[in-house]
Specification:
By secondary structure, the protein is α+β, with helices and mostly antiparallel strands. The protein has 4 helices and 13 strands. α2 runs antiparallel to α3 and α3 runs antiparallel to α4.
């Protein structure tokens, strides 16, 4: 029955059916080829080289479809591997770009940053979720490079602050009082991993960092 349906198909009808579909499959290509053969002019048949070229194209299409399926399987395998790799980071200390820090109740926090040049003075200003300044820490003179400063979790009056996310700002100056380039680094210990999105997301206390944004991993100190 399928063969009879093909015999009744003209090249124009077959082409219209294929173009109406979103993708071209091997079956679509085969239907076009058979329709072309059945409706060719007997006095001017298809050239042998042209027919061979179409058969080669049909074979190439089949190989491309197989490759696409294998790539899809490989992508799924990589996604699973990425999730397991993300889970193995629990308990590790990671870093990313950003100006946020997570404070645990009654605990301390590490604030990371990168200095572009030597600084005679470094000042770390910490703000609560409402944008209000709660603490200023003098870091003194420091050489260029990746730095970390400890925050005891207290405000400028010595009172313990509530747990939660805080933002910070780094201001660095040279001996002449000119500003030195300083970039905040979001860092902390991975406490959990969220796996329900397009990529794993690491939880650093109340902060969340996509795995693709992680720039360094260290053993927790």
């Amino acid at each position: 029955m399928a063969l009879q349906a093909i015999q009744a198909t003209t090249p124009q009808a077959a082409a219209s059916s294929v173009l109406s579909a979103k993708t071209v499959t091997q079956d679509d290509f085969l239907k076009l080829l058979i329709a072309q053969l059945q409706n060719q002019d007997p006095l001017n048949p298809m050239d042998n080289q042209e027919f061979a070229a179409q058969l080669a194209a049909f074979n190439s299409l089949g190989q491309l479809i197989d490759i696409n399926k294998k790539l899809g399987t490989l992508q799924n395998s990589q996604a699973v591997a990425s999730q397991f790799n993300a889970a193995s980071l629990i308990g590790k200390e990671v870093s990313s770009s950003g100006n946020a820090v997570s404070l645990q109740s009654g605990g301390t926090a590490k604030i990371g940053y990168q200095l572009g040049a030597n600084a005679a003075r470094v000042v770390v200003s910490i703000y609560n979720a409402g944008g209000e300044p709660v603490r200023q820490i003098e870091g003194g003179a420091q050489i260029a490079g990746e730095k970390t400063i400890a925050w005891d979790g207290k405000d400028n009056s010595g009172r313990n602050l509530a747990s939660g996310p805080y933002n910070f700002e780094i201001n660095a100056f040279d001996l002449n009082g000119k500003k030195v380039a300083a970039t905040g680094r979001l860092q902390g210990t991975v406490t959990g991993v969220v796996l329900d999105g397009s990529e794993p997301v690491l939880e650093l206390g109340e902060l969340k960092v996509p795995l693709s944004r992680v720039t360094s991993v260290r053993s927790a100190r």
